[in-house]
Amino acid sequence: MLNNKLEVSMYRYNPEVDKFPYMKTYSISKPSKDIMVLDLLNLLKEEDQSISYRRSCREGVCGSDGMNINGKNGLACITPISSVIKKNKIELRPLPGLPVIRDLVVDMSEFYAQYEKIKPFLQNETTAPEQERLQSPEDRDKLDGLYECILCACCSTSCPSFWWNPDKFVGPAALLQAYRFLADSRDLKTYERLEALSDPFSVYRCHGIMNCVNVCPKGLNPNKAIGEIKSMLQKNKKDIIVSDKL
Amino acid sequence: MNSIFGNNIKTIEFDALIIGGGGSGMRASLELAKSGLNTAVVSKVFPTRSHTVSAQGGITCAIASADPNDDWRWHMYDTVKGADFIGDQDAIEYLCSEGPKAVFELEHMGLPFSRFDNGRIYQRPFGGQSKDFGKGGQAARTCAAADRTGHALLHTLYQNNVKEGSNFLNEWFAVDLVKNSKDEVTGVIAFSIENGEVAYLKAQATVLATGGAGRIYASTTNALINTGDGLAMALRAGYPAQDMEMWQFHPTGIYGAGSLVTEGCRGEGGYLINKDGERFMERYAPNVKDLAGRDVVARSMVLEILEGRGCGEKNDHIFLKLDHLGEEVLNSKLPGICELSRTFAHVDPIYEPIPVVPTCHYMMGGTPTNVSGQAFTRKNGEDYLIPGLFSAGEAACVSVHGANRLGGNSLLDLVVFGRATGMHIQNELKSGGGVDPATKSDIDFSLERLQKLNESSDGFDTAEVKRELQECMQNYFGVFRRGEFMKKGLDQLDELKNKVDNLHLKDKSDAFNTSRVEAIELQNLYEVAVATAVSAYERIESRGAHARDDYPERDDENWLCHTIFDPLNKSVSKRKVNFEPTKVDAFPPKVRTY
């Protein structure tokens, strides 16, 4: 009987009743097979309706259920409990560094604001052809590892530089997208994009701590993209940059 | 959220309101944002969390990239045939002929399509595709961004909405439509999930772009949020639903988990095997084998399992074999599938086959609309447009998918009809169209359901009732159907009615109260389930996805028609299929073989 119970320690906070957040421990029979952390949460919610968390696709592509699981950010729906249980215990907390709305739900406004700041859309004011703009497979390959971001915020909320300056440091997620457009052969605002990132905070607050790479549930590498942006900024002369792309 | 009746709730006014932030909603909003009309998208999740994100294989469209001679008429032929001849041919013609424009627009917006060596958009073969009206062999017509096309499409649309400055009411949940005394739709009652604030969102045009409702079944590829909210709102308002018996079971959902494995796997050369290692689709569809229509493949798989040739200890699933394609192809063309398979099936497709089983995937039915997205009801056997109400995407039934949707046609449906709806609303409102205001009592009427839930002091448990509903639908309205079993299912649904109407909301708090959302979602699922069950019971033939073992043949004499479910008296009537395309001759019904 000793080992068939699982202890789940969960961050709880409901602003209408709780003055302060607290950790609540739930004891639950260990599931007979390995399940995902999201399945575990769903089981707990059947017992206690008041538990709040976001979820949608339950397969790791929508980015809703980023949370801090035993000290590491990840997506609940693709994290098997077997990979995180320590001494029969799992600790669940909201993503760090953002204001908590309730329980495991954080206010992501600041995260989204940084995303919007980098102008996350293709900019090409030349007249579009009747068909598609052509792009070689080699140029298209440059977008792999960039466009797959699901905006779950696991990376940015694990980044100490983002914790310190969430308003001024763009953060790994949005910088990955900044590079996604810098790297796109169809985007022609390279110079303007780099100009907008050239202040001491937007990119240069990244000190290569690499937490972002460590936690990304999609296996992406924002640190590498940031490195690419930094080297583009080094040679940021309008003529060079523009001629590179054309 | 205590007293919400009367003057206590605020009104927020827009020109146009779009309920749902998936592909069709955001394509419509993009069109409207550019027009200068005051538009808002109401989405219960941040838009990039919408279920469009899970679409994998691609968007089917005759852009003539893989084959320079490709022709939208061939695509139209395939779609009409795939639909088992109850898709409306005027709508299918519009879908296929406008499609290339809509796809090129997406590319111009930045969608990172995969490419051929010549720089054009990559296209892969999908099921049910042919050249030259079925006479020229397999076509490759599905435009793809690796196997993450839905993700790429949804993010691209969100990005362009950011660019155009669209308004978003994110994490707002629409509860019910508001109607005025003339039976016109004047907006919705909605609340902010974040803080519980209730508001009347008033609009001249309300678009239901709320996607499907796959969660009526216990086993589905659909996201947890796919609860048919918009369709249910329309049903509760007394408006009909069309072809609700037509639910697509995708051949390859991951066994046990339900996650989708794209048809693109078979397009790239993968195939299904039974426990003897036999490529059994050669027997069921000798010409195109694993690339037959999804309904055909799903039924063949179930027959293999029923006849004892299923795989695994319980002989209850089928294997999808991909290892022969080689590591390089799998990593470049199907990277997302490899990832999903490792996570949810604990299988690496580079070395082992993926265990799969037919899984509920797509709702072909929905709120009936014309090609401009205008929703209609029926009066005296005629279509009658509902002023103020529109629908697009999976929530709508326009109907381009008829009795069975072809792979890759859903993403095309989203952008083509999302766009058409946006264009129509723009023209209508700019030429002075609109609806009369609603009165205070009209608004109160639409608040009742929310009020009742908020005041509940006892009653039934959401999770338990949902499980009962899903099991009922799974058992009696699955891949194969039979009258006597469906009758049992209908009786069970009748019994569930009282429970669904009397859910107990234990947690009454305002801040991010997901149990309130889940209770209303369950009520929405119930509306959709009843429409499905009644329509399925009434259609006494087999056609497309609707397979009855008590009526195994297609019956064109009596059932070459749509079903219209009337929510007021829970009855079904027939509606004519459109056989009047304008640019080509209609494709007459014929025996459907692959």
How is this structure best described in words?
The complex is a heterodimer of chains A (246) and B (594). With 246 residues, chain A is of the alpha+beta class. Chain A is 30% helix and 14% strand. Chain A is built from nine helices and seven strands. In chain A, strands 2-1-5-3-4 form a five-stranded mixed sheet, covered by helices on one side. A two-stranded antiparallel sheet of chain A has the order 6-7. In chain A, strand 3 (66-69) and strand 4 (72-75) form a beta hairpin. The longest helix of chain A is centred in the C-terminal third of the chain and has 13 residues, at 222-234. With 594 residues, chain B is of the alpha/beta class. Helix content of chain B is 35%, strand content 19%. Chain B has 16 helices and 22 strands. In chain B, the strands form six sheets. In chain B, strands 1, 2, 6, 7, 8, 9, 16 and 17 form an eight-stranded mixed sheet that branches. A four-stranded antiparallel sheet of chain B has the order 11-14-13-12, with helices on one face. A three-stranded antiparallel sheet of chain B has the order 3-5-4. The model of chain B has no long low-confidence stretch (mean pLDDT 96).
Short descriptors:
heterodimer; A: 246 residues; alpha+beta; five-stranded mixed β-sheet; two-stranded antiparallel sheet; 9 helices; B: 594 residues; alpha/beta; eight-stranded mixed β-sheet; four-stranded antiparallel β-sheet; 22 strands
